[in-house]
Amino acid sequence: MRRRGRSVPGGWILLPGIVLALAAGACGPRDQGPTEILWDRWGVPHIHATGPGELFRAFGWAQMKNHANLILRLYGEARGRAAEYWGESYLASDRYLRTMGVPERAQQWYGAQKPRFKGYLDRFVEGMNAYARRHPEVIDPELESVLPLDPTDVLGHLQRVIHLSFVGREVTFGIARQPVPGSNGWAIAPSRSAAGNAMLLVNPHLPWSGFFTWFEVQWKTPEVDAYGATLVGMPILGLGFNDHLGWTHTTNPLDGIDLFELSLAEGGYRWDGEARAFETETQSIRVRQPDGTFRRETLTVRRSIHGPVLEVKGDKAIAVRLVGLDQPHMFEQYWDMIRARSLRQFESALRRLQNPIFNLIYADREGHILYLFGGRTPVRASGGWQDWQGMVPGDRPEMLWTRTHPYEELPRVVDPSGGWVQNANDPPWSSTLPRLLNPGDFPAYLAPRGMRFRAQRSVRMLEQDRKISFESLSRYKHSTRMELADRILDELTAAVGPRSSDLARQAARVLADWDRRADAESRGAVLFAEWARTLGAGMFASSWREQEPLTTPKGLANPAAAVAALEKAARVTRDRFGSLDVPWGDVYRLRIGERDLPASGGPSRLGIFRSLEFAPEKDGRFRALFGDSFVALVEFSQPVRASALLSYGNASQPDSPHRGDQLALFARKQLRPVWRTRKEIEAHLESKEVLPRIPYK
Q1: pTM > 0.90
Q2: For position 169, what pLDDT does the model report?
Q3: 625 close to 615: Cβ distance less than 8 angstroms
Q4: How many domains are contained in the chain?
C-alpha cells in the first residue's frame, strides 16, 4: 500500500514554493548551485540547471507535473502490456506493437545508446519516477500499475509515435487509424524581412490529445539556452530555437513503408522461385478481465525477409517493411541540433538522419535559411510514386529495398534568392518560388507532384509582401482566408441564374457578401463549407498543373451540379442553424472542459492556413480536435524576439489550471510573448521549484 503525502528517498518536498531533494546520495556539493524550475503563469517550465544530467531529470519531473496520467497511459501502451493493465479494449494495440517488435527493440536501442546519453535518458526517467513518488495523489489509480517507469519506455514510446504512427500511418492492424498530421513552416531571409533579420514560423497541426500532445519548455544550462516544444513523453525538444538558430518540422509525403503481398507455400512463402520458411515466435499476452482476473492470449509472430507479417488470409499474407528501425540515436541527434550555434554545426547533426521522417525548415542569426526533405526514403529499384503506394509483390528480390538515400541525395535548398522557404505538407518542389528543386533531378518514387490549396495560400501570402515584419508574420499565421473560395466562388455565384430556385438565389447572395474567411464572425463560411462537402470531389474542370501552380485547379466541371449542391447545402444549413448566414463561430467551437468559445480557422482542404479540423457534437455544433497546436514566431534579432501559443494549454492533468487556459487567446487570434530572461520570467512567475545539484559524469 502506498503512503500518500509522505516524502520518500529520491523524491522532492514542496516547502513554500521550493522543492528540495532528500536522498543523501542525490545531493551534490552545495557550492555548485541548485537546479530550478520556474513555472510561469501559463504553466510553462523554465528549467535552470547546472548541467545536462540535471536538466534531463528536471525535464522528466516537469512533464509529469503537467501530464502524469497521460504519460503513464502512453508508456503502458508502448510496452505492449496495455491489455494487462486495462483490459480487452487494448488487445489489438498490444498485438500490433508486439508484432512490430517494439518492446524488444526498445531494449536493444537502450543498449545501443552511447554511455553519456544513456545517462541522460536514465536521469529523465528518474525525474518522472521521483515526481510520481512525491505526488501519488495526482496519479489515477488505474495507472499506478505502470510505475515505476524505465528508460526503455521512452524508446518504445518513440518508436510507437514516430515510426509506427508518422511513418507507418497507413498500417492499422485492427486498431483505429490515426488522423494524418499536417503543419505549416516558414523561414524568411533578411532580404525579405522588414527588420533585416531572419525569421521562423513554427506551426504544427496535430490532434489535440494523446501522444500528439505538445509540451512547451525552456532549457537553460551553462551550455544551452533553448526554447521550444516536444511531444509529451519525449526527452528532447522536437521543435525549438536558441540565441543562434531554430527549426521546425512539417510532415512530408515520404514513403518509408511498404506492404508486401506474400504467396503462402509449403509452410512458408514464395521467394525468388522457392519456398522460404517464416521466422516464428510465440508470445503470451495477459488480458485483464472485468473481475480483476487475467486470461492468456497467445500471439504467434511471423516474420518474412521483408519484415513482420501483419495479416494472413487464405493463401496470402501481408508483411510490412518500415524505415528507421535500425537507427536508435534520434534523441542524441536532436540534443546536438539544439546545442548548435551555426548552420554548419546544425547540419553536422542533421545529416545523421536518425529521424525517419519530416521536412525541416531552419533559420539563424547569420541570415541563413534552409529547407530539407528529411527522413529516410528507401532506395528502390524503379518506378514512380504511385507504383509504390499499393501492395508490392513479395516474391521478387528486386522489390526488396535494403538501403535508404543519404543526406546528400535528398531535396535541399539553402539561402534561395527569393528570400524564403516554406512547406505546408506539399511535396518539396514548391519549397521556393521560382522553383529551385527540379523533380526530374530525383528518383520519380521520392515524392509526388502537386500543390494543395493550403500550400497555395501559404505561397501566395509570402509572395504578396516584399518586406515581411514580425507583426505581419503574425497576421499571416492567423489567416483564415479560403483559397478554395477565391478559386471557385465567382463562378459558383454566376452559375445561379433566374431559373434557379429562390433558396439557391438567396444562398448565392449570402456567398457574394461573405468575406471569404473562416473567422468567428464570418457569415457565409458555414454555407460554403457545407456546399464543398456536398459537391465533393470532381468539382473542377481542369486539374492542377505545374506550369500554373497557384491558379489551378480551376473552373467548375459541372455548373448545374454545383448549383444543385448549393441548394441542398442551403437547405441543410438553414434547417440545422436557422439561417444561411449563421456566423462561423456559432457553429464551429473551441471546447475544453467548461470553456466553450467561437473558433476562427477551418479545414485544410478549403485552403485555410490556420488549419482546424472538427468533430460533430450532440448539440449539432462542431468541436475543434485537430489542427493549430503549438505556434511560435521567432525573429533572430539581438536579443531574439519570439511569441508563442499552445492552443489547448500546457497541461492535461484534470485539475491543472493550465488545461485549456490558452484557448481564449487562440479564439482572439493572439500569441503570448515568450519569456526567456530571468527578469521576464520572475515578473510572470506562478511558482518555483528547486532541486540541489546532483553530480553526473
Answers
A1: yes
A2: 76
A3: yes
A4: 3
